[in-house]
Every structure is written in structure tokens, then in C-alpha cells.
């Protein structure tokens, strides 16, 4: 099992941002992700910086740490421009980028460009077109395509990614269409659990729901002739009924991670502590988890 973190882009680079990313590498995290939003929930009225520039800066001050989005969505992205940014970011980082990608939701990003929020069906339709086109753009030198929602006209992406045939996709999905995209295009699959259980569910119900999601992923992989074991299975914590309790102690985290490793998860992602927020946690305990938990897990 791997342990990763997600660093929200809320700090000015020279007032704490750079220090966090460098410290994430020092603590031994496998990957440090950031959210790709224009603004997000309770942080909407405070500082919030762009994901791609943040990751570019992080790539310049780290050497081994993998970097990525968790997650990018079509809400305000276009495959052609995103592909160019990703190829550049993969080059700057020396091939350390993972693209977490999902269908998006009804948050602030959904209407920031002046459009009406898309229905769940339209989000799924767009996602189903977005991912295959992005895959082509990252693997072919020139792409021309006309879709219902997205088009490319001789879009050039030479020299392509450092990682071959392209940087890895970690596809966030819980529904059947998203699972099929993960099975076909993903090197990893991402979930936050069952959102219906967040308020009133129990940790036991959450484990059962996650087991059901992994079973569905396995069926989607079987339909495409792929072994589900080939996909990394990534759990972004903080959105299950456990909330932030796994970060209360090293023991609590080891117990949480062990239960989810038994389900088949290969990577656990924890939020870097943010005081006075849903992600508040003791920094010293967090760092002990980063340096000790996987050894304890065995």
C-alpha cells in the first residue's frame, strides 16, 4: 500500500506553499496531489490558486515526489488545452505526473464560465467524450476529431509525454459509465466512498459500499478484457463516515488503512492539515502517520 497526500492550493507560494510541497517529499509520501478547481466549498472566499501552475512550481522544488490532480474535470477544461498543459508539466517534472480525472459536479466550477450547470447525464456524456479525446491528444502527434461536445483540428502535441505512452490517468468513478472509462483508459481508479453515507452512515456501511464499488470495477474490467488487479485503487479520505478520525493517531490510521487494504485499495490519500476547517488535524500526528504508518501496517 502507498500513502499520499493532497495539498489544497490555498497558500501563497512564498508564504508556506513551497514549504509544504518540499516537506511532503521529505516525509516520504508517494504522491502529493492538489484539487483542480476555480474555487471550492468553504474556501471560496479565501485564497485559492490554479492547479497546473501550482504543480509546475512543486515540480521545480522536488525531485522524487510524484505529483498530480485529484481531480481535474471537464467543468472548465478543454481536452486540447489541457493536453498541452499536461505534456509541459510532465516534461518539467521529469515524468512524475498523474492525472486524476472525473466527471465534475455542481460546485462553483460548474457555472463559473457563465454556463448553466450540466445535468448528471450531460456530465457523464461529456466525460465519456473528454477522456478518449484526451487519451489521443497525449499519445498522438496530431489529432483531428469532431465530437458532440469537443473537437480538435490538427492539434499538435510534439514531443508528447516523458512517460510513455502517456502520463497515467486515475479515473474517479462510481457509476457504470465512469467505471467503464476507468477500466479502458485508467492506470488507476479513484473513489471518495459513497456520498450518501457521509452524514449518517457508519464506517462498517462505508466499507461494504466500497467493496461493492470495487466489485463493479472488476466487472467493468472483465467486460474490457482487463485484469482489475492492473489498476491502482485509490481512496481519497475525509469523505466517508470516518471523516478525519483516521488522523487522530497512528493506531487509528493503521486500523483504517488495514481495513481498506483488505478490500483491495493500493493507495490511501490524506489531506494535509488545515486548521479551522474540515481537514483540521494535529500536524505532529499527521507527520508520524506519514513516516511510521506503512511500516506498522506491514
Any overview of this molecule?
- The chain has eight helices and ten strands.
- The protein is α/β, with parallel strands linked by helices and 298 residues long.
- The strands form two sheets. The chain has an eight-stranded parallel barrel with strand order 1-2-3-4-7-8-9-10, surrounded by four helices. Strands 5-6 form a two-stranded antiparallel sheet.
- The longest helix has 21 residues, at 203-223.
- The mean pLDDT is 97.
What's the layout of helices and strands?
Elements: E1 2-6, H1 17-26, E2 31-34, H2 51-61, E3 66-72, H3 79-93, E4 97-101, H4 120-139, E5 142-146, E6 151-156, E7 169-172, H5 176-185, E8 188-191, H6 203-223, E9 232-236, H7 250-263, E10 267-271, H8 283-297
Parallel strand pairs: 1-2, 1-10, 2-3, 3-4, 4-7, 7-8, 8-9, 9-10
Antiparallel strand pairs: 5-6
Helix pairs in contact: 2-3, 3-4, 4-5, 5-6, 7-8
In summary, what is this structure?
The protein has 298 residues and is α/β, with parallel strands linked by helices. 39% of the residues lie in helices and 17% in strands.
List keywords for this structure.
globular, 8-stranded parallel β-barrel, alpha/beta, single chain
Q: What does the largest sheet look like?
A: 8 strands, parallel, barrel
First CA to last CA: what distance?
9 Å
Q: Let me know the number of strands.
A: 10
User: How much helical structure, as a percent, in the residues?
Assistant: 25-40%
How large a portion of the residues is in β-strands, by DSSP E? 15-25%
Radius of gyration: 18 Å
Helices and strands, in order, run as EHEHEHEHEEEHEHEHEH
Which structural class is indicated by helix and strand composition?
alpha/beta
Order of neighbouring strands in the sheet with most strands: 1-2-3-4-7-8-9-10
**How would the global form be characterised?**
globular
Q: What is the helix tally?
A: 8
What number is the mean pLDDT? Answer: 97
The residue ranges in which pLDDT falls below 50 over 5 or more consecutive positions are none
Amino acid at each position: 500500500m502507498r500513502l499520499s497526500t493532497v495539498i489544497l492550493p490555498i497558500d501563497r507560494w512564498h508564504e508556506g506553499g513551497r514549504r509544504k510541497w518540499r516537506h511532503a517529499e521529505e516525509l516520504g509520501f508517494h504522491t502529493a496531489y492538489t484539487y483542480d478547481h476555480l474555487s471550492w466549498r468553504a474556501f471560496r472566499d479565501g485564497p485559492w490558486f490554479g492547479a497546473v501552475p501550482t504543480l509546475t512550481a512543486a515540480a521545480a522544488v522536488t525531485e522524487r515526489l510524484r505529483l498530480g490532480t485529484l481531480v481535474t474535470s471537464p467543468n472548465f477544461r478543454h481536452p486540447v488545452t489541457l493536453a498541452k498543459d499536461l505534456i509541459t508539466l510532465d516534461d518539467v517534472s521529469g515524468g512524475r505526473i498523474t492525472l486524476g480525472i472525473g466527471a465534475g459536479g455542481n460546485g462553483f466550477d460548474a457555472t463559473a464560465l457563465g454556463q448553466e450547470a450540466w445535468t448528471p447525464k450531460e456530465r457523464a456524456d461529456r466525460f465519456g467524450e473528454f477522456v478518449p479525446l484526451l487519451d489521443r491528444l497525449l499519445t498522438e502527434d496530431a489529432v483531428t476529431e469532431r465530437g458532440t461536445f469537443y473537437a480538435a483540428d490538427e492539434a499538435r502535441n510534439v514531443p508528447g509525454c516523458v512517460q510513455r505512452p502517456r502520463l497515467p490517468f486515475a479515473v474517479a468513478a462510481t457509476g457504470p459509465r465512469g467505471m467503464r472509462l476507468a477500466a479502458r483508459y485508467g492506470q488507476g481508479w479513484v473513489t471518495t466512498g459513497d456520498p450518501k453515507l457521509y452524514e449518517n452512515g457508519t464506517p462498517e456501511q462505508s466499507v461494504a459500499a466500497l467493496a461493492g464499488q470495487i466489485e463493479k470495477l472488476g466487472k467493468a474490467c472483465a467486460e474490457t478484457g482487463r485484469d482489475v488487479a492492473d489498476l491502482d485503487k485509490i481512496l481519497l479520505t475525509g469523505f466517508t463516515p470516518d471523516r478525519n478520525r483516521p488522523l487522530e493517531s497512528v493506531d487509528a490510521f493503521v486500523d483504517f488503512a488495514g481495513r481498506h487494504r483488505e478490500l483491495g485499495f493500493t493507495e490511501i490519500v490524506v489531506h494535509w492539515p488545515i486548521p479551522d476547517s474540515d481537514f483540521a488535524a494535529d500536524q505532529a500526528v499527521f507527520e508520524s502517520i506519514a513516516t511510521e504508518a506503512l511500516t506498522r501496517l506491514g
